[in-house]
Amino acid sequence: MTERRILMIGGLIAVAVLVAGAAFLAFGRQGDDFAQCRSSNVAGGLDAFGTDFTLTNQDNQRVSDQQVFDRPSLLYFGYTFCPDICPMDVARNDAAVEILKEQGLDVQSVLITVDPRRDTPEVLADYTAMYGEGMIALTGGDEEIAAANKGWRNYYKAHDEEDQDYYLVDHMTNTYLVMPGNQTVEYFPNSLSPDDLAGRTACFVRAAS
Predict the structure, then answer these.
(1) What CATH class has 46-208?
(2) Is 171 annotated as a binding residue?
């Protein structure tokens, strides 16, 4: 085979690969309304995140995931006795919600506790009162909370072996964007500012409308 023929065949293969790649990207994004908004890359995709649940809110009412996620929601897993990270993350999420409201976008902040023993509905009611109107906080039995955390792949561990009252709980600090119908579409690190979080959330909310 001549060198010229080898180069021609190689060129045709390269073109074929490029065409196939472009077609894959085009058709792969065709069914994803949020492709232009995504920045995360999760093995298995974000469709695997989330789960059905029935938990208890700060008003001591049993609510389902469908009732909670009736609008775009910034979902965070934390606890009210958390001394530092949780208050900053929840306040950041609340600030982002307020920014989005100023833009005419209806988004809410949701907290699912990783400390159901201490986070009773009464404690959660006092906690949510410190933040913007409309925040939802959820608790439940140990198994219910474990199942919800597992659904969003959230690691947590209570260090209560020696002290049953004043213990800390290790947990992840991601915030998940959950769309109506319990569809998780993105997660955000806690390093984002309120403005950045609001901007990235707004992209998804507008794309869904």
Answers:
(1) alpha beta
(2) yes
